[in-house]
Amino acid sequence: MKREESTWEAGNEGGNQLGLCVLCGLPASGKSTLARSLSDQLRRKQGWGVAVITYDDIIPEMFFEGENGPTLSSQWKSFRQELLMYLEHFLMTIINRWELSAPILRTRGMWECFVDCLKNQGLICSGTGEAQCYSLTNTTLSLPLYLILDDNFYYQSMRYEVYQLARKYSLGFCQLFLDCPVESCLERNKQRNKPLPDETIQLMARKIESPNIEKNTWEHNSLVIRSRGSGSEDSKEVTDLLTTALKNPVKCFEENMEQKETDRIICSTNILHQADQTFRRIISQTMKKAKDEKVIAYKLKLLAEELTKLKADFLEDLRHGNSKKIPCSCQNSISDVIHLFHYERDNVVQKYIPKEY
Description:
Elements: H1 8-11, E1 18-25, H2 31-46, E2 49-54, H3 55-58, H4 69-96, E3 100-101, H5 108-120, E4 124-126, E5 133-136, H6 138-142, E6 145-150, H7 156-168, E7 172-179, H8 182-190, H9 198-207, E8 222-226, H10 235-247, H11 257-268, H12 271-292, H13 297-320, H14 334-349
Parallel strand pairs: 1-6, 1-7, 2-6, 7-8
Antiparallel strand pairs: 3-5, 4-5
Helix pairs in contact: 4-12, 8-9, 12-13, 12-14, 13-14
């Protein structure tokens, strides 16, 4: 866990500029087309390093097939959190100039897709050390680097999680919101190899929340694009926005009391549920690992009881604002909460599988 305690300040000496761009909008609104075009423009004209992180290409497809709608929705939230954890893991690697190693707890196929995404866009290459370890390329280490996150991001709270990550490490942050008529999205969706049900897009259209700069100061680096699906919409305006965000990274802990309360309300709507789902998955994976290691039955029982108690303590802190396990300063950051849970989990597991932790 020592790596997780490193800070941006420690890794920023001589470091390159880093930015996160959230690309959001309805399915089939032209996000992926714009992302490809924008990536090419930024490489050729700006000389930047760019990686497009397309959620649909990384999160396992099998979890979105079948008829179990509520279960799939819950799994989708859990996998979104896992992908955000991968993203932070990669950012920590760049900031501290390490090799990229696989997290202890991961969904194997999903992690491999994430690694392939970075490899295919020239940000990492196979290292010479231990297995599942990758070296950062010169592009990643020396050029200004933008990570473009391609997903629907239809709730403000989803985008705010990315903003929190940018604020935590003082990165550039901006949003591109593709405003496309529902009818156009439905028509384009039908031309896809695997079209979504019309009802899914219509439901998302009713729920989607566009950037609100007047209400949320954290959304001030946002641009609403009237999408035509050509991938070249407002290219100069887009480039100007990304340049401004990169040159003016989010200041860590820079907030007034009014904005802090707004932030708290946004976070509190989802953080408890997200934490509960993630804790359950971590415990399930840990218990499977313990069984694979042939931990004897009575120790398995004790391990399960300790982990269940740990989960209950964490959720109690989040629910009532206590600080028994989670410092109050961390309770609005799901990534901080998960990191703390991993740390406490490792301490528990060491009693039963010391050679693995």
